[in-house]
Amino acid sequence: MTDIRYLAPPTLDEAVRAFAAAQGAARILAGGTDLLVQMRNGMARPGTIIDIKKIPEMTSISEAADGSFWVGAAVSGAVLAEHPRFGTVWPGVLEAINLIGSTQVQGRASAGGNLCHGSPAADSVPAMVAAGAVLTIAGPNGRRTLPVEAFPAGPGRTNLAAGEILVGFTLPARPAGSGDAYLRMIPRTEMDIAVVGVGVSLTMAGGVVTAARVGLGAAAPTVLLVADAAKALVGSKLDDAAINAAAAACSAACKPIDDKRGTIVYRTKVAAVLLKRAAAIAADRAQGRA
Amino acid sequence: MNAIDNKWIGKRTIRPDGADKVTGRAGYSADHSMPGMIWGRVLRSPHPHAVIRGIDTSKAEALPGVKAVVTAKDIVNFPLDKSVMLGIQDMRWMCRNVMAREKTLFHGHPVAAVAAISEEVAEAACKLIEVDYEVLPHVIEIEDAIKPDAPILHDFVRHEGKPSNIATTMVNKLGDVDAGFAQADLIIERSFTTRPVHQGYIEPHACTVSYAADGRVTIWSSSQGQFMVRAMTSLLTGIPQSNIRAIPAEIGGGFGAKTIIYLEPVAVMLAKKSGRPVKMVMSRDEVFRATGPTSGSMSTVKIGVKKDGSIVAAQGTFYLQAGGLPGSPLRGPVGCSFSPYNIENVLSVGYDVVSNRSKVAAYRAPGAPLGAYATECVLDEIAEALGMDKLELRLKNTAKPGGKTVYGATLGAITFKETVEAIKNHPHYTAPLDKNPSKGVVRGRGVASGFWFNAGGESSAQLNITEDGNVNVTTGHPDVGGSRASIANVTAELLGIDHSRISVLIGDTSSIGFSNLTGGSRVTFASAMVVTQSAEKVIGQLKERAAKIWKIDPEAVIWDNGEARPAGPNAGQFPPLTLKDLAAKANEMGGPIGAGVQLNTTGADPGFATHCVDVEVDVDLGIVRVLRYTAAQDVGRALHPDYVEGQIQGGVVQGIGWALSEEYLYNAKGQLDNASFLDYRMPVCSDVPMIEPIMLEIPNPKHPQGVRGVGEAPIVPPLAAIANAIHDALGKRFYSLPMSPPKVLAVIDG
Prior knowledge:
The complex is a heterodimer. Chain A is α+β, with helices and mostly antiparallel strands. Chain A has helices at 12-21, 35-40, 56-59, 77-82, 86-89, 91-97, 103-106, 111-116, 124-131, 227-233, 240-253, 264-286, and strands spanning 5-7, 26-29, 48-51, 61-63, 69-72, 134-139, 142-147, 152-154, 157-158, 165-171, 178-185, 196-205, 208-217, 224-225. In chain A, the strands form four sheets. A five-stranded antiparallel β-sheet of chain A has the order 4-5-10-6-7. In chain A, helix 10 runs antiparallel to helix 11 (240-253) and helix 11 (240-253) packs across helix 12. The mean pLDDT of chain A is 96. Chain B is α+β, with helices and mostly antiparallel strands. Chain B has three domains: 18-25 and 456-600, Aldehyde oxidase/xanthine dehydrogenase, molybdopterin binding domain (Aldehyde Oxidoreductase, domain 4), CATH 3.30.365.10; 32-136 and 200-290, Alpha-Beta Complex (Aldehyde Oxidoreductase, domain 3); 293-454 and 605-748, Aldehyde oxidase/xanthine dehydrogenase, molybdopterin binding domain (Aldehyde Oxidoreductase, domain 4, 2-Layer Sandwich), CATH 3.30.365.10. Chain B has 20 helices and 32 strands. In chain B, the strands form nine sheets. In chain B, strands 3-7-1-17-14-15-16 form a seven-stranded mixed β-sheet, with helices on both faces. In chain B, strands 11-21-20-19-12 form a five-stranded mixed β-sheet. Chain B has a four-stranded mixed β-sheet with strand order 22-30-31-32, sandwiched between helices. Classes of the chains: A alpha+beta, B alpha+beta. At the A-B interface, helix 12 of A face helix 20 of B.
């Protein structure tokens, strides 16, 4: 049996110090829905576990005066769903986070953990990318911020430097006429992992798209920001030509693999279909129709 | 004993094992522990095909905490040149399946096992075992395995005089197919493939074994037959059956795959060597890699009909994957595919093909679903070509009582026609279907039928009256699908007492007489028969006791509503004697009251089913969802309707998974890539609609309650029913399973 040190520091500073002191032998524990599974199947054998759920900043949700949202990295999906405002402002982000695991898992699983796990198929990440979320990261050298799309480095890898901890997400203030949506393709109806996932965020005025962002998951080694798809949508009334161009851009952005969860051909086609469907939902929400 | 006003038979009573199961108290395989117990782990082959040149276990044995190591040397060797059968299992293959002998034949094949003071130490010790492998080229798929230049798995396998991976050929014949096809106005011939699918039971294989100082072995494990565990362990360890007691744990699903053993003989040898009780529990990964799925298949079915739809000839060729050792369920497709129909000329041929996959095990109506898939899809095409209603085509050709089947049996009182009519007259089949409810969504309806042999076989029961006048009934086969609940109903009905006064138990191998496996849809049929005869004997004893007390002739006593009464006024005037009264006087009137019966039961006539399904296809994503499902089956008599419905619904759900999503995925190295419930995609609850069972209760004249086996027939039609429904929705046919989204989209995009 291996002994494991368990720490639950009450402040971020203490967590950062403990994490740095462990020199790579420590793992951060939020909900543990990935970490404990990895430990059970022998993929992770941490010497120290640092539980961040005692740190108020990492478990809090707050809406600033300017309308931006702070979501701590360890906030669980269930807690976020109960927030009176978050789901009305960011319904797409919330539905993406709420797709992580079963109802029971939702009581523990967090968007921070989902991002740090580094899976290209992580459901919350394309929605966060579409939302334009900015990360706050703390480490031995202080704090820094990073756009969420710059965080993943490859399957199972992130751009966190040694000793750094993801603190949380800032979602920007939402102009009037905005809406977002996330859709994923899974062969089953639940208890499954995305074959492709697409997040779309739109701002519209008078039926015209004034701003757009598109996140694409499970179609490349990392979740992607698909700028060309957004470009095709901005300035349009979401007519067929614009939607088809955005869908084509999504397919073009795909660099998928053939694996047990999907084929290159299938993923490339599905990325386009999901873009169309997610854009339609986001547009309905932006225009108050849903 | 089968009247509509039965008090208990046919009622939805609370199952005897229910409270323990819903409160987490029920003892499953992995729940038993003993003082001094240690843990066993299996070292498995990383190669799909390799010669074992040598195994050095010295470093593992030297690791502190390790108590025993076993390899194939510790398991009884059944030489390749002489078949030793236990039921349908050849011990030559079983001994090589529980522990690789000359060769490893699949990724995950056991090579050695360790027992140590903890699972961690056992796992660490497995890594210290040095196996010298000579890696050989491997072959996974049937089409590759039957090529002339395929890597040959076994030198002793010959087909048509040459080394081959075709281990067995089975030919069933009726009439003359060439003459039959010559009469046909229309012949349709199609080829199909299906993938191996796992039984997907929730409870992994596990056991705890004690080897006492006097050589007596006790095994706690879940299986579909404690007597099978005893017999197979005895053969593989050389310990006589009288020295082995196999105690059945509650079982968390078997579906056929727990009709053989994997861990028990290994654990026995580890316990013998270490002198300590040994517990072994498989991980889910091990269950997928190394326990039997059912066969994948390649089949061709050709059917010839006259213009009026009457079938004049049928021919089927079925190649089945056996896994690394011979033994695929050929008789399923060969015997069942055409047996719902009255066809004079049939040729049905099966080939057993070995390849570097885990050895197949039985799975619910073994082999029959993949045969029915081919036949029932071809019939759908024939009905379409003739412009005939699909059910009318089946009605026109239904097998008849007294008809001869291709597998040799003559049919008794069969009720296939009734299942087809039940669907034809059901509001599901007659309801209009909106075939294009919205843009990008299409719907379709399909039907298919199925046949399964059913089985009787050996069963034992013991019915004892307790001293306080209540009842214990013990039978000898594990309760997989609610058999205790059915037995409680039968016993209450026969004795005329309240259901709550009866305790139904599953005996271990030392406490009840030999009973065959829970399998073949036999247990409720067979155990109700032996329990009925036991109850009749007990009632006879009770009448004798009453007669003795009243000093009248036993013939003058009747047993009615839980009491002995004088048969009529001439017999005398006595107040009735209840079971409690007679139990209280048991010893002074001749001793304890109880009786047992042991039989080789017969009269289990075949089961027939006809299904109807509506599906919806998302044409942009290729996703198929099942919207509505209705399954008609002759169940004879539903002793406990909940568990009959459960069998029908469960079979259909497994068929839905087989049709739409389940498959084994191997990588280029011949390693299984999806050994988890996440990536081996069985349906979850939200993937299936409420499945409506139509239980046709047409009593089987050969059974005291009219029971007909029900467990297996319901998995036979779904594969074809769903394929036919998808065709109805899309206008395109699929010839390969699973009809998973990438495959469906590829066909849609054409």
